[in-house]
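Troubleshooting log. The previous structure file for this entry was overwritten by mistake, so regenerating from the original sequence record. Sequence copied from the archived sheet and checked twice against the printout by T.R.
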Amino acid sequence: MDKARPFCIDKREVWEAYKRVKANRGAAGVDGQSIAEFEEDLSNNLYRIWSRMSSGSYFPPAVLRVEIPKDNGAGVRPLGIPTVSDRIAQMVVKRYLEPKLEEHFHDDSFGYRPGRSAHEAVYVARSRCWKYNWVLDLDIKGFFDNIDWELMMRAVRHHTDCKWVLLYIERWLRAPVSMPDGTLVSREKGTPQGSVVSPVLANLFLHYAFDCWMSRNHPDVPFERYADDVICHCRSEAQARSLRG
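Regenerated output below.
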């Protein structure tokens, strides 16, 4: 193996990651570079990402913090916007990790998964509401910003020992946040909502923290989970209150 590039990453993976990022569009990150500007020197920019990831010298830039109004008008939702280059690097890792996790994920997990959608979750919830008289509606407050890194990495290592995947996930978790006023803020927990790899990591964390827990402790309570939003179906008020308690 080339000592200068200890990690074997196919150049084709960077190309495929770029195409996915382009299709998803998205705003510029802290460097102000748009996808169109990135494409002005496409070959060199993609080669640079591949070279740095393969050599272990890729370090993510700060994540740009933006705030968008919540749909229900109750405050704002903080998002972290990586640069275009960083989104491509994250997509390389996502393309590697996601297939390994999909075979383990719960059937009632719908958010940010290939071939699944919010419409499917709503359809399943509606059909179950005809069979169960009570629901418990859960929303984990500040979930993305409070994920425990040690537990997160323990879950990732359970599914892969790929050194470059583990290395870069840890670096993304620790990347600082560039606030709207330009100040850099270090983080000690959480994964930015808005990054490419965060939804996969969030689903993995909640797979163990919620889905598996429900299967062990409340196997008779079906649910639909879309990221950190959950609806649990109960047969009685007492069952719903017991689950909530």
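The longest strand covers residues 63-69. Archived copy saved in two places this time.
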